[in-house]
Each structure stands twice: as structure tokens, then as C-alpha cells.
């Protein structure tokens, strides 16, 4: 059998068993593209090694690809499509894991202020949308994908509850929000309506200036600009600069307070008053 067909069958099997399998499917699709439309028995170890290596240093994604291919070749071996796995026998050491960045209060103040002032005529994502979105991530600990998936029907500002549908573990959950965050979102919703954006309950809550859904790529790109504009950078020797995802860790600190975390809710609203 050819490689793409076996990949198709493997992904279909996994998804029929209830797994989303999106990341693995994307990895295997990229693998097929890198190797070509060949028989699965013709895949050479050197081709697998080149795909795993990519074009840069070893990252955690190397291991993510290796794990996806390991599962795939276990499937292929079990069905007799191949006699041996072409995966490398030795695996490089995993890189140092991400160290979350906890933003000092002053940096949060600058970040939210810069978000509110973001205005660029050619940018679809404007500050009036970005600032409440970042405050939502900071205040609730939602994943960016969950926040961007919110529809108008999912945001009940009267009851101060968000409905998060089919999140990471395929379950819908309710997330309460406080009155001050609700007020921020209410102001955004009012401005959204005033600007004539679509108001069907199924429409996305966060939209661009052209009334399209905000994408993760837009937010992450804007976050890098904000981080640089606000002069925020790590000085602890970690490999990665502060990320959008790091805002979630502040929510963790508020749920389980520590001496270092301090009064996070109070810190948030001090930032709001001055941003």
C-alpha cells in the first residue's frame, strides 16, 4: 500500500475511536508531503531522519513528531504493511521544558495599555478587540483557542458566565467571570454592536474590523508587537521570550494563591485603572 493511504486509514481509525487526533494528523500529512507518494515499504530511514530533523535545532516538536510516527508505524507493523520501522533507534534528549513567565504588575500595566492603543489601519485586529481578549485570558485562564471559539451565544454577561464548548477534553464547561471583567466585555460587546458587526448568536464574539473571526495567528503576531512595544523581555536565561500562553499562569496563581503571586485580582484591576 502507498504511504498516504495507510496514513488515511490510521487517522480514520483513531478518529472513529473518539480521538480528535488533529495534531497527529497534521504531522502525518506533513510527513507524507516530505516523503512523497510512495509505497510505505519504500520509506527509507534517512527520509524519516530528515523529516524529524527539520531545519533548526532539536525542539520539543521533534519529539512530538517522533511520537506520532511511532504510533503510526506500530499500526503499520501490526497490520503487516511493513516488516521493520524506519524510525531512528536513538532519540535526542528533550530540550529544557518551557518555564512559564510570570509578568510583574508593572509589565502587565504596560502590556494592557499598549494593547488598548494598538491602532494600525492595515491591521485587521484592533486594540479595541485585543485588549479585552488579553484581559479575558489573564482573568480566566482560558486557552486562546477557547477564547477565540466563543460565540455571542456563549457569552452571558447578565449571568456573568461563559460557555466553553468541547474544549481540550471534549467537554463543555461553564466559566464564571467577575463583575469587573464582565464590565470590560460588556463595553466591548456594546462597541461591537455599534460598529455594525453581525449579531447572530452563532457569530464569533471577538471579530476583526472587517467582521471576520480573529485567528490565533493574528493574536500571537500582535502579542509580539505589544511585548516589544512595552519593553518586556526575559532576563532569567530561559530560551523563550514571554508568550501569550504565559497569561494563563496568572489565573493559576489566582486560583491557588502563593506568597509570590500576591493579590492577583487586585493587581489586575490596578492595571485596568491605569492602562
UniProtKB/TrEMBL annotation:
Q: Name one GO molecular function term.
A: DNA binding
Which PROSITE patterns does its entry note?
TYR_RECOMBINASE
Per the record, the GO terms for biological process are: DNA integration; DNA recombination
Report domain Tyr recombinase positions: 98-275
- Tell me one Pfam family matched here: Phage_integrase
**What keywords are annotated for this sequence in UniProt?**
DNA integration, DNA recombination, DNA-binding
Q: Which InterPro entries match?
A: DNA_brk_join_enz, Integrase-like_cat_sf, Integrase_catalytic, Tyrosine_recombinase_XerCD
| Highest taxon above the source species | Bacteria
Record-linked Gene3D superfamilies: Intergrase catalytic core
Q: Does the keyword DNA-binding apply?
A: yes
* Family to which this protein belongs: Belongs to the 'phage' integrase family.
User: Know the name of this protein?
Assistant: Tyrosine-type recombinase/integrase
Q: Which organism is it from?
A: Thiorhodococcus minor
Amino acid at each position: 500500500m502507498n504511504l498516504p493511504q495507510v496514513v488515511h486509514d490510521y487517522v480514520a481509525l483513531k478518529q472513529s475511536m473518539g480521538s480528535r487526533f488533529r495534531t497527529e494528523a497534521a504531522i502525518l500529512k506533513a510527513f507524507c508531503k516530505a516523503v512523497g507518494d510512495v509505497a510505505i515499504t519504500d520509506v527509507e530511514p534517512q527520509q524519516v531522519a530528515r523529516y524529524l530533523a527539520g531545519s533548526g535545532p532539536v525542539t520539543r516538536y521533534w519529539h512530538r513528531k517522533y511520537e506520532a510516527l511511532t504510533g503510526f508505524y506500530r499500526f503499520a507493523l501490526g497490520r503487516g504493511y511493513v516488516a521493520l520501522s524506519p524510525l531512528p533507534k536513538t532519540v535526542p534528549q528533550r530540550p529544557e521544558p518551557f518555564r512559564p513567565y510570570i509578568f510583574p504588575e508593572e509589565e502587565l500595566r504596560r502590556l494592557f495599555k499598549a494593547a488598548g492603543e494598538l491602532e494600525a489601519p492595515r491591521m485587521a485586529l484592533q486594540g479595541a478587540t485585543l485588549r479585552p481578549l488579553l484581559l479575558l485570558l489573564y482573568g480566566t485562564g482560558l486557552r486562546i483557542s477557547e477564547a477565540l471559539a466563543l460565540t455571542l451565544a456563549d457569552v452571558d454577561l447578565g449571568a456573568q458566565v461563559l460557555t466553553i464548548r468541547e474544549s481540550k477534553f471534549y467537554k463543555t464547561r461553564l466559566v464564571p467571570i467577575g463583575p469587573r471583567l464582565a464590565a470590560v466585555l460588556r463595553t466591548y460587546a456594546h462597541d461591537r454592536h455599534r460598529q455594525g458587526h453581525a449579531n447572530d448568536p452563532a457569530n464569533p464574539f471577538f471579530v476583526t474590523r472587517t467582521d471576520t473571526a480573529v485567528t490565533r495567528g493574528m493574536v500571537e503576531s500582535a502579542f509580539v508587537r505589544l511585548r516589544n512595544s512595552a519593553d518586556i523581555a526575559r532576563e532569567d536565561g530561559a530560551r523563550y521570550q514571554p508568550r501569550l500562553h504565559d497569561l494563563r499562569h496568572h489565573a493559576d496563581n489566582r486560583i491557588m494563591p502563593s506568597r509570590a503571586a500576591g493579590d492577583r485580582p487586585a493587581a489586575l484591576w490596578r492595571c485596568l485603572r491605569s492602562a
